[in-house]
């Protein structure tokens, strides 16, 4: 039987991972000094060494269960398809043509802000931050190189736009999970959520504009082919119509491959090789995701997640305190699980109890769950979104974090909304009878 009592020591593997991964980079000044896979393997060994009551075989099976969680496997499939799509599209010239189109339309001072806005639009349409980063990441890297702007700033713009839609899309897993666990209406929740985070989006655009205004370097605008841009246009159209992200990426691979074969960029043999190379480029992320999934399952079973839940709900006395507890609850759970959907599903039932006890509107509690989970997910260096983006940019996730303005500002806006009691809500959706 699983432990019901929280156990702070169960979080030790996560602490070990963070100390090794982040600490070694800070101390040495080189975040590649200790490979992230080595750090997670050591942390996983620590997790397997804990809880001596169970045999190693039992713990390994439990670890495998976590690594094989549906959310983890879907993430791995996205990594596989994203790697293949990115490499195939790049090989047939889609990235170069898209970059040249963007540079011919937008002034250089607007390209990074434009990346954020485009990312927000794509992610709202697709409902997935991972799919957005997979589609837009390579383009952002190409634009940064051509426009002579920081690649970390450009890829951070992609992450910000991706998390904007992840938080506000009607087809996002996080939105659906928040609405369901809080028993409220989808439309009502999105309205509340939108008004809280809108200032964060506006300030992010302003910051990105200010940081690129001084860029006066001249860029040669090269020719582009609309034909070669079709894979990205196809991905965007499919996203607007709400297609599944796996279907979108698969279709993108097929379309890019067909165009590459038609214009002579590929032969069947070279296309197959490019697909393989793209998948291989994601191997580190795939292994990392599986190991994190297994480690998190051991942490959860040993009581680490329950410890966080108990810690945040121990001394609630007021409605405002309840709202801060919901925010802290989902944030800490997200830090431990590195998955915003899982963190909402885990913290959601307790958040509902808190909201009922302290008369917190269900729309507000759902918004807080989604808002803070997406904020944390967009900032943690071991989150799938950050790792995927860093892989495209070929930089350490730690180097990107200082420029991820939108996730930071989202948390700030969420805190301000709690402090000032914003927005003022009527009693419309307090009843669970209106749940979607």
Automatic annotation (TrEMBL):
The keyword Cell membrane applies. One of its GO terms (molecular function) is antiporter activity. The keyword Transmembrane applies. Pfam families: Na_H_antiporter. It is found in: Cell membrane. Its main location: membrane. It is a multi-pass membrane protein. Keywords: Antiport, Cell membrane, Membrane, Transmembrane, Transmembrane helix, Transport. Residues 72-211, 233-421 form the Na+/H+ antiporter NhaC-like C-terminal domain. It comes from the Bacteria. GO terms for cellular component: plasma membrane. The chain crosses the membrane at residues 9-28, 34-51, 72-89, 109-135, 192-211, 232-259, 279-299, 405-423. Belongs to the NhaC Na(+)/H(+) (TC 2.A.35) antiporter family. This is Na+/H+ antiporter NhaC. It comes from Priestia aryabhattai. The lineage of its organism: Bacteria, Bacillati, Bacillota, Bacilli, Bacillales.
């Amino acid at each position: 039987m699983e432990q019901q009592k929280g156990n702070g020591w169960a979080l030790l593997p996560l602490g070990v991972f963070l100390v090794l991964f982040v600490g070694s980079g800070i101390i040495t000044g080189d975040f590649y000094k200790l490979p992230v896979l080595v750090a997670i393997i050591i942390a996983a060994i620590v997790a397997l060494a804990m809880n001596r009551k169970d045999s190693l075989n039992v713990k390994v099976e439990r670890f495998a269960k976590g690594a094989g969680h549906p959310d983890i496997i879907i993430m791995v499939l996205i990594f596989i398809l994203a790697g293949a799509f990115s490499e195939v599209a790049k090989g047939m010239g889609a990235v170069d043509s898209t970059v040249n189109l963007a540079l011919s339309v937008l002034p250089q001072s607007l390209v990074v802000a434009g990346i954020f806005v485009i990312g927000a639009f794509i992610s709202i349409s697709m409902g997935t931050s991972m799919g957005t980063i997979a589609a837009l990441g390579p383009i952002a890297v190409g634009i940064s190189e051509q426009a002579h702007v920081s690649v970390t700033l450009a890829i951070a713009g992609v992450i910000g736009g991706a998390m904007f839609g992840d938080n506000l899309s009607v087809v996002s897993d996080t939105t659906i999970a928040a609405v369901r666990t809080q028993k409220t209406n989808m439309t009502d929740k999105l309205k509340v959520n939108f008004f809280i985070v809108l200032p964060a989006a506006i300030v992010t655009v302003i910051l990105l504009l200010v940081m690129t205004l001084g860029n006066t370097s001249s860029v040669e605008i090269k020719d582009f082919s609309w034909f070669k841009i079709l894979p990205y246009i196809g991905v965007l159209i499919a996203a607007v119509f709400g297609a599944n992200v796996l279907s979108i990426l698969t279709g993108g691979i097929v379309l890019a491959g067909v165009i590459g074969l038609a214009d002579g960029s590929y032969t069947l043999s070279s296309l197959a090789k490019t697909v393989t190379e793209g998948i291989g480029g994601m191997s580190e992320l795939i292994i990392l995701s599986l190991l994190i999934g297994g480690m998190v399952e051991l942490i959860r079973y040993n009581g680490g997640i329950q410890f966080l839940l108990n810690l945040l709900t121990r001394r609630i006395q007021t409605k405002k305190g309840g709202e801060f507890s919901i925010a802290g609850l989902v944030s800490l759970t997200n830090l431990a699980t590195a998955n915003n959907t899982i963190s909402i599903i885990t913290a959601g039932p307790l958040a509902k109890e808190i909201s009922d006890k302290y008369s917190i509107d269900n729309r507000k509690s759902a918004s807080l769950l989604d808002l803070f989970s997406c904020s944390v997910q967009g900032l943690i260096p071991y989150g799938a979104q950050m790792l995927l983006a860093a892989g495209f940019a070929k930089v350490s996730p730690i180097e990107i974090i200082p420029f991820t303005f939108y996730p930071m500002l989202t948390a700030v806006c969420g805190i301000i909304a709690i402090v000032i009691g914003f927005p003022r809500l009527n009693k419309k959706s307090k009843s669970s009878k209106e749940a979607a």
